[in-house]
Design brief:
Number of strands: 15
Structural class: alpha/beta
Helix content: 40-55%
Distance between the termini: 48 Å
Largest sheet: 7 strands, mixed
Radius of gyration: 22 Å
Strand order of the largest sheet: 4-10-9-8-7-5-6
Bound molecules: pyridoxal-5'-phosphate
CATH topology of the largest domain: Aspartate Aminotransferase, domain 2
Number of domains: 2
CATH class of the largest domain: Alpha Beta
Strand content: 15-25%
């Protein structure tokens, strides 16, 4: 029986019988299976029972242009007919791979003229470690090996990427790389006494300076961070944070890696998050929206500073994947970049869509269980509380946010829960009307959650 011929009930039974889902409590899932999605249309997803949900998460921060982009689908199909696979090892390449490499350098910030392709964001961050270690080895500074990252960061799920990440739950289940150190993130909602934005940004940036100085700058290779922490709960940094971080790295000869797997491709209101916050990284991680999620593809944008050393020193860079620069994924990437260029979607986000989004979601700020709501670009994070003044949480172990997320999904809206936060990152192409629907459905979920916990509704 193919997936198409299975009934919704059969599909769920087969799912729980055979499929181990990522980031899932397997025992819990066998007892209470989830939903299976079978179609996408515009910015909606349709499940196996025919229910339509507005996708407030762009898949998994991937489908920035929605589910119905036929030019990407056509490009994938045409590439499959022309050359479904060839590799990029041993001085080989494919025309699609070369074209996407060039197109990426068109849209990367100035001074980025090289890319290394991978299949995912995780592999791209593994690649960053390899590139950075190679760079300093070639410069005759082999002792520069340490990476600094942030608590609650997400950089992927391979051992190396998860070591860079600061997710305590992941670290508890693995043995992390010994040369990764973590510092605080710019976040203090749960602190007894909160700092001003400037104080928080300064304190969090100084944590990097202190860590580098404690470890000795001669041993530290790079700092990696997301412009806005996405999977950590859409943690939007104070405006003074990034300029200070960039200055600290520069003064101490530390490479700066901007992990733009979520923030790239217009998510923050510029093509890249580093452009939104006005800093110049040395390496840029990309994935997800590079193919609008239609094919697995990731990579690293390499600045001229790093590329010059790597490409003039000789000696093989002993790293790569069978599918690095896969022609079908690259064809999807080319069509996606072309859509970004022809639709000028990033300009639209910068000029007006991000304002429409901020205005629409801010109407939820007054809700009795919304402790704080922040948005930037086409991202939003809400802190759920029982009491706005004391910031007491609705329920232990993030139960309030889990309940709210479940109500949203039942009411036709896909959003995500992270700790006590509800987050959303809709496709950039969301219309005004769809934004209003998203906000209505989220308000309804908040009302039901407030009711459940005996708090007055809005
Ligand atoms: C910032 C960031 N980096 C890296 C990754 C890992 O990407 P992938 O899941 O494609 O390996 C993610 C995934 O969500 C991410 O958000």
């Amino acid at each position: 029986m193919t997936a198409q011929t299975q009934t919704a009930t059969d599909l769920l039974a087969t799912d729980t019988a055979h499929f181990l889902h990522p980031f899932t409590d397997f025992a819990q899932y066998k007892a209470a299976p989830g939903r299976t999605y079978v179609r996408g249309e515009g910015i909606n997803i349709i499940d196996s029972e025919g229910r339509t949900l507005l996708d407030g998460m762009s898949g998994l921060w991937c489908t920035n242009l929605g589910y119905s982009q036929t030019s990407i689908i056509d490009a994938i199909t045409a590439q499959l007919h022309a050359l479904p696979f060839y590799n990029s090892f041993f001085n080989c390449s494919t025309d699609a791979t070369i074209e996407l490499a060039q197109k990426m350098t068109d849209i990367l910030p100035a001074g980025f003229n090289h890319v290394f392709f991978t299949n995912s964001g995780s592999e791209a961050n593994d690649t960053n470690i390899r590139l950075v270690h190679r760079y300093f080895d070639l410069l005759g500074k082999p002792e520069k090996k340490i990476f600094i990252s942030r608590k609650n960061a997400y950089h992927g799920s391979t051992i190396a990427a998860a070591s860079l990440g600061g997710m305590s739950g992941m670290h508890a289940q693995m043995s992390a790389l010994p040369y990764v150190e973590h510092i605080e993130q710019p976040y203090d909602f749960d602190a007894d006494s909160r700092l001003s934005d400037d104080e928080l940004g300064h304190r969090a940036a100084q944590a990097l300076a202190q860590k580098i100085d404690a470890l000795d700058a001669d041993r530290v290779a790079a700092f990696i961070a997301e412009p806005i922490q996405g999977a950590g709960g859409v943690i939007i940094p104070p405006e003074n944070y990034w300029p200070q971080i960039a200055a600290i790295c520069k003064e101490r000869d530390i490479l700066l890696i901007s992990d733009e797997v979520i923030c790239g491709f217009g998510r923050t209101g510029s093509m890249w998050g580093c452009e939104t916050y006005g800093y110049r990284p040395d390496l840029i991680t990309f994935a997800k929206a590079v193919t609008n999620g239609y094919q697995p593809l990731g990579g690293v944008g390499v600045s001229d500073k790093v590329a010059t050393v790597l490409t003039t020193s000789g000696g093989e860079f002993a790293h790569g994947f069978t599918y690095s620069g896969h022609p079908v994924a690259c064809a999807a990437g080319i069509a996606t970049v072309e859509l970004y260029q022809s639709s000028q979607i990033v300009d639209a986000v910068a000029k007006d869509r991000q304002i429409a989004w901020a205005t629409a979601v801010q109407t939820l700020s007054d809700h009795p269980i919304v402790g704080e709501l922040k948005s930037k670009g086409m991202l939003m994070g809400i802190e759920l509380v029982k009491n706005k003044n004391t910031r007491e949480r609705l329920a232990p172990e993030s139960g309030g946010a889990v309940y709210c997320r479940n109500q949203a999904i039942a009411g036709g809206l896909m959003v995500r829960q992270v700790g006590d936060r509800i987050i959303s990152a809709p496709p950039l192409i969301i219309s005004d009307e769809e934004m209003a629907t998203l906000v209505d459905r989220l308000r309804r979920a908040l009302d039901l959650t407030a009711q459940h916990y005996g708090i007055n509704e809005s």
